[in-house]
Amino acid sequence: xxxxxxxxxxxxxxxxxxxxxxxxxxxxxxxxxxxxxxxxxxxxxxxxxxxxxxxxxxx
Length: 59
What we know:
- The protein contains 2 helices and no strands.
- It is mostly helical.
- The longest helix is centred in the C-terminal third of the chain and has 10 residues, at 42-51.
């Protein structure tokens, strides 16, 4: 039996992911029951990535 986790689906495999909120992307990718959980940390995560010189920008 196979499921999406075994297939190693990544965010870029989800159609329309760039226009989704973090919660929507989470729900599609991980099938999260708490898709709004990441929303509270999104601003901090974007700030960290923006200040990390080796990380590509989130867009």
